[in-house]
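Notes, p. 3: input format for complexes.
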Amino acid sequence: MQDINCLPLYNTLRRHVKGKSSLLASPLAPPSLPVPENAKLFAWVGDEILPREMAKVSVFDSVVQGGDSVWEGLRIYKGKVFKLEEHLDRLFDSAKALAFNNVPTREEVKAAIFKTLITNGMFDNTHIRLSLTRGKKVTSGMSPAFNRYGCTLIVLAEWKPPVYDNDNGIVLVTATTRRNSPTNLDSKIHHNNLLNNILAKVQSFATESCDHVLVESNNANVDDAIMLDKDGFVSETNATNLFMVKNGVVLTPHVDYCLPGITRATVMELVVKENFILEERNISLSEFHTSDEVWTTGTMGELSPVVKIDGRVIGEGEVGPVTRKLQSAYKKLTDDSGVPIPTYQKL
Ligand SMILES: Cc1ncc(COP(=O)(O)O)c(C=O)c1O
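Output follows (347 residues plus pyridoxal-5'-phosphate):
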């Protein structure tokens, strides 16, 4: 094999890439961003913080090779990271379940989170996508034995208001794709191998081609898709946990198939605090279709009322009283609690 320092073409290319690379340029016109301010953000990758366009992982990274990575979504409210310790607990548990080696310490992950937020001046209205991959491999392949560099930490913070219409409600359809079972890929591991969810999501949204023709005929053009477990009980949506109310009782599915969401746990505590009866049990789809109220929970979207499922109007087709009460209890909790970001000064 040749010594790479004796390869003139390789060295020319390397210099070109180090300068201004057009190798990754898209053939499409630059799209507009949902939040234009995010064009100038800095992201943490590995052990450094870089401008958005320069923040990249290696083609040898495990997340590229096999979606071999774990992640958390966190939200920032009024200078504080909401449920930071709970998210870090789940991140480290997920990494342990997948037998990651050379995992950064809790203090290192926290330092990277705070540094990213402070560099971006993000102290509110911010969502963090925190990923920990098994790391870069010495050669492509599945085996964790090729992972000799340690894990790759990515902290991607963006300006992001809650993503659903929490005032008027959202619409769901039921996906044909079933939720993973613990016999194949345990939902308690919060991993980046998201194709099970993405296949369900594909059924919920409509893709438009350049000439505005719907290109996926079975797509419903709604907000998200409900996923059932192998027995046909409701598990969760492709991105959130689910709750329903019938005759004053609040119900939510077991976490056998769904992610044990941190917002789900928080809302379950609020349900009890607000003196509603709470039941965690198998729930069939027809119970959801005929319920009085339904809402989804997740860090990204908070509590989102559901007004229609598979064409059935839920309750009166508007945000119900139990949902409203819990939305306001949740808002109070996010305002009042969380881990303060160092250096943040209240105005
Ligand atoms: C499939 C799925 N369900 C539920 C949730 C909500 O979890 P949390 O409340 O911890 O944000 C998420 C968020 O990552 C998710 O990906």
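The chain has two domains: 39-159, 170-335.
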